Amino acid sequence: MGEFFDTHVHLDFLRPDDFEKELKEASRAGVAKFLVPGVDLEHWEIILGMAGDKKNILAAPGLHPRSAGQWDESVARNLKSLLHRPGVAAMGEIGLDAFLTSPPLEVQERTFRDQLRLAVRENFPVLIHCRKSTERLLRILREEEAGRTGGIFHAFSGSIETAKKAIDLGFAIAFGGVLTYPEARRAPQVLRALPAEWIVLETDAPDIAPHPFRGENNRPAYLRLIAQKVAEIRGWSLKETARITTENAKRVLRIKEA
Predict the structure, then answer these.
(1) SS3 of 209, please?
(2) Residue 102, SS3?
(3) Omega into 188 within 30° of 0, i.e. cis?
(4) Cα–Cα distances in Å, from 38 out to 41, 64, 159, 239?
(5) What ranges make up the beta strands (E) of 62-121?
């Protein structure tokens, strides 16, 4: 079957008494590696602790757009030091979210730019969060030379044209639960159109559960359902899907292990 890599899963939001159970269930479903993004300052040490305890868990500390107001020079220094801790593979998730009423986009953009500059200086890939702000975000990525680091566009919901612009900047495109919804149209079209080497998988658990569990808490084990849909759309076997998407994730995140 092969081994899957969940490039975006909030293991820190699982109930502590469910944590080991969920990892075992994911392992039985073929999920061998997890990347856990940070969303706010309070969660950074939690996800680094997970990465320190488990070799198959990697951390990506950063400030989500909703936490952009936490950013200051002290937080920037803290984040810089964390990037070089064992088990840290990326900075994330960072970006812009026009759905949010607070903080305002101007604050989000300032924090996003500062984090991008830090990632570029420290040569770390980034996990991108983008909702209803695509052109503004792509412009910032170009202006801040984010192509020097690349990374992953998390929960991609844009057009084929946007996906190709992201790929040109060195960003893989992550597909999650939305791809599996019976009414999904754009996500399958984008998946069909992309070069194989830029496709990765994610659950975003506990959010965005795939069909037939939509509306319920998402689980790391459900990555297999997403992989099955990718395999169906691309005409790959499940083993090929595991190999291709895992190799892609390791390449963009610069993970050297076998």
Answers:
(1) coil
(2) coil
(3) no
(4) 8, 7, 26, 30
(5) 91-97
Q: Judge if the upstream peptide bond of residue 93 is cis by omega within 30 degrees of 0.
A: yes
- Assign 5 to helix, strand or coil: strand
> Do residues 173 and 167 make contact, with C-beta atoms less than 8 angstroms apart?
yes
Residue with tokens 């070089």: 84
Per DSSP, which regions of 49-202 are E strands? 57-60, 91-97, 126-131, 151-153, 171-175, 199-201
Amino acid at 33: K
Within 8 A by CB and 6+ apart from 248, the residues are 172, 197, 198, 199, 200
Distance separating alpha carbons of residues 38 and 20, to the nearest angstrom: 20
pLDDT of the chain along its 258 residues, tens only? Answer: 579 999 999 999 988 788 999 999 999 999 999 999 999 999 999 999 999 999 999 999 999 999 999 999 999 999 999 999 999 999 999 999 999 999 999 999 999 999 999 999 999 999 999 999 999 999 999 999 999 999 999 999 999 999 999 999 999 999 999 999 999 999 999 999 999 999 999 999 999 999 999 999 999 999 999 999 999 999 999 999 999 999 999 999 999 864
Distance CA 26, CA 71 (A): 34
* Residue listed under structure tokens 């064992």: 86
The CATH code that applies to domain 4-252 is 3.20.20.140
